[in-house]
Structure formats: structure tokens, C-alpha cells
Amino acid sequence: MSPYSHQPLWLTKVNQALAELCGWLLIFMMLFMCIDLITRGLSKPLYGVSELAMFTMISITYLGLSHSEETHSHINVDFLLEKLPTYWQCLLNIFISSISVVTIGVITWALWNNALAAFESKQAIAGPQPILLYPVKFIMTFALALYFVQAAINGYSHLLNFHHQRNSQGV
């Protein structure tokens, strides 16, 4: 984390709570998978269990993004970045953050529109009891919106760090 981070306490608490929720959801996903395997092995499959496991896995993935961004624990290829002078590292971090924020923003907006369309059309997975898709799409949208906010805060921290680097070098 940059020494010039402006991370709001509420966002840190939300990120930590969602990271913990992801751990609990992982347990439920494993239970769903075990139930699915056992009932299929007994030739009495339960409808919707594998779909619930899939929705849970999607939720785990999206809900953990913001915490991963906050703690910088996402996958990062930085072997070249480390070889650059600090000034260029800061510039590259600002550039990457800018691209990330714009991309995440566009994806969040598109997913929001998709979630609304799924809600309005009652989009569902067909079967004996249709499973509505909009709840998981709204979860994904909420999680991506948090990810967007976190990426913007990290980008702002990179910008402040760059400004500090320039001032300390007398540029």
C-alpha cells in the first residue's frame, strides 16, 4: 500500500467482511458439490444443486475482487517494473490504474444494464423450477462497483505517490 493511501475505513471494513463471506461461501459451494456428487451417484440427482454451486462460485470470485485490489494480492507481473527507476514505476502504475479504472467502469455499467434486463425479462435457467439469473447478476454488479471504487482509490494513491516522488527529487 502506498504511504499516500486515502482508503476510507468503511471500504476496508466492507472488503474484509466480503473476504470473510467468500470463505464461508466456499464452504457452501463445496457442500453443494458434495451433495450433487452423492445424489448423482445414487441415481437421484437434485435439480438445481450444480447451478447453486456455480452461482456461489461466481459470487466468490466477484465479491473477492475489491479486497484483492485493496491488498494488492492480485496476480501481477512486475519483474520489468522493478527494474525501472522509481519515477517510471510511478508513471507506469498511474497508466495501469487509469486503464483498469476505465475498463472496470465500462464492464460494471454493461453488467448493470444486463442485470436490469435480466430482472425485467425474468431471465432464468430452464428446468422443472426455473432459476432466476438476475440475483447473481446484481451481486456481480455490486462487487464490480466496489472493485471500481477500490481501483480508483488505488489509482489516486499512485498519483499522490508520483507527486511526492517528483517533489522529493526537486523535479
TrEMBL record:
The keyword Chaperone does not apply. It is a multi-pass membrane protein. One of its GO terms (biological process) is C4-dicarboxylate transport. One of its GO terms (cellular component) is plasma membrane. It is found in: Cell inner membrane. The chain crosses the membrane at residues 21-39, 45-65, 86-112, 132-156. The complex comprises the extracytoplasmic solute receptor protein and the two transmembrane proteins. This is TRAP transporter small permease protein. The lineage of its organism: Bacteria, Pseudomonadati, Pseudomonadota, Gammaproteobacteria, Vibrionales.
